[in-house]
Design brief:
Elements: H1 5-12, H2 18-22, H3 25-39, E1 45-51, H4 56-61, H5 65-75, E2 86-92, E3 97-102, H6 104-107, H7 112-127, H8 131-150, E4 165-167
Parallel strand pairs: 1-2, 1-4
Antiparallel strand pairs: 2-3
Helix pairs in contact: 3-8, 7-8
Length: about 170
């Protein structure tokens, strides 16, 4: 399934350097700090990955943001935490789409509709150009679920990096 022309143009016209305008270094540092602070309150792991745009091969194959988020979840090994409670927040800037992929330890406790509700709240902030605020709100919402289900557990140390991953095509 080929990508619609509008999506193809949006991705091809979204060079990687634009990512730094949308999420400058201070924003990335704020996100890192929020994840670090969150993980001190529960035994779960949160990781954030941001991709400017999909490469033309993925676009021509019609890869959806959800499919790409699953690829990134696997590539970054978010699934490889001891308690299977890693959560990936994936932002595809060209589509202004966010996806949350949760490992089986937390996914079975939080319905998919709740993850989608968090995504839609974040996307509303993105439409207003508030990318840092949207990501911080998403981190806090994910944290609330991890606290509810994995709070009070022995914190195993930091299994995933706190700083966001900038995904390169």
């Amino acid at each position: 399934m080929a990508a619609p022309l509008g999506r193809l143009l949006r991705h091809l016209c979204f060079p990687p350097w634009r990512l730094r305008r949308v999420l400058p270094r201070p924003s990335l540092e704020a996100i890192t700090h929020a994840i670090r602070a969150s993980e001190q309150r529960h035994g779960g792991e949160i990781h954030c990955a941001v991709e400017a745009a999909l490469d033309w091969r993925r676009l021509l194959r019609g890869v959806s943001p959800r499919e790409r988020a699953l690829e990134v979840f696997s590539a970054l090994r978010v699934w490889d935490t001891e308690a299977n409670n890693g959560v990936l927040i994936y932002l595809l800037l060209a589509d202004r789409d966010v996806e949350i992929v949760a490992d089986r330890g937390i996914h079975r406790r939080v319905p998919q509709e709740e993850w989608e509700r968090i995504c839609r709240t974040m996307e509303a902030a993105f439409r207003e150009g508030r990318f840092e605020a949207g990501l911080l709100a998403g981190i806090e919402a994910v944290s609330e679920h991890l606290i509810r289900h994995f709070g009070g557990q022995d914190i195993q140390g930091n299994e995933l990096p706190d700083q966001p991953t900038i995904v390169r095509p």
